[in-house]
Amino acid sequence: MYINDVRLTGEMTGKRFNEKTFFDSQNARRNLDAVVSSVIFEGWNRSQVQRFMSEVGASVRSYNPGNVIVEKGEVADGMYLILKGAVELPDLGEKLVAPSSFGEAAVLPYKPDKERNATVIAERSSPEGVGFVTDLAYLPGVMIMAMKSSDSPLLTGFYGGLIKEVHQRMANMNVVTAGLREKNADLTRRLDQYAKEER
After folding, report:
1. Angle of helix 46-55 versus helix 153-198 axis, rounded to 10
2. φ, ψ (nearest 5 deg) of residue 102
3. Could you say which architecture CATH assigns to the domain 6-198?
4. Which residue, among 38, 114, 52, 120, has the nearest Cα to 78 in the 3D structure?
5. Where are the domains of the chain?
6. Burial zone of 5 (CB within 10 Å; 0-12 exposed, 13-18 middle, 19+ buried)
7. Half-sphere exposure of residue 110, counting CA atoms within 13 Å on the CB side?
């Protein structure tokens, strides 16, 4: 239930966040701008994005710094688009910033267990040490699956964009991993050299 377009749901889930309708008049334009700028919705016009977000019943959840958004192993009931701020994945040592997404497994029809793969928290603080609120668009998985039965062309475009976003994130991770492998190889060479010199 929404009261003045705001609903506090932290008490129900044990997590603390404020939730508003996606089209809350105060931030509707900012929310739509953030979604339109994401890789998932690349090439979509504003009215298509607006229609999709309306059809899936998207909402905006705001989290204070350090608040848990999802926990590894819990039921994955929807995915998130980062509208403002950033999130941390402590298990993976990763950080995602707007306009990225996470929790995609919750909207994949062939994923049987639908469990979260990682814990995600709202970024604890900015580089300057100042905390700020992280805003996320929440897309309920059940509503996205319901669109599948309507054979919506928007859903086809959404999945195409989702695949592109995940591929892009994996490519970025491979670049980082390759850099770490190179640094580790260099460190190993230097340690071997040091060991040889000490003999």
Report:
1. 90
2. -155, 165
3. Sandwich (2.60)
4. 114
5. 6-198
6. middle
7. 1
Paired residues of 140 in beta bridges: 78
In the structure, what pLDDT confidence band is assigned to residue 1 with cuts at 50, 70 and 90?
very low
pLDDT of residue 116: 87
* Closest to 98 in 3D by CA, of 112, 110, 81: 81
CB atoms within 10 A of CB 7: 16
Find out whether 162 and 102 touch, Cβ atoms under 8 Å.
Answer: no
In DSSP terms, which residues pair with 4 in a beta bridge?
none
CA-closest candidate to residue 193, choices 185, 108, 169, 93:
185
User: Which amino acid belongs to residue 81?
Assistant: L
Rounded to whole angstroms, the Cα distance separating 155 from 53 reads: 11
What are the C-alpha distances in Å from 112 to residues 63, 71, 76, 108, 109? 29, 18, 11, 9, 8
50-74 residue pLDDT tens? 999 999 999 999 999 999 999 999 9
Rounded CA separation 61/142 (Å) = 18
pLDDT of residue 101: 92
**DSSP code, position 19:** E
Return the CA Rg of the chain: 20
Distance CA 183, CA 190 (A): 11
86-136 residue pLDDT tens: 999 998 888 899 899 998 888 876 565 678 888 999 998 755 555 578 999
AA letter at 76? A
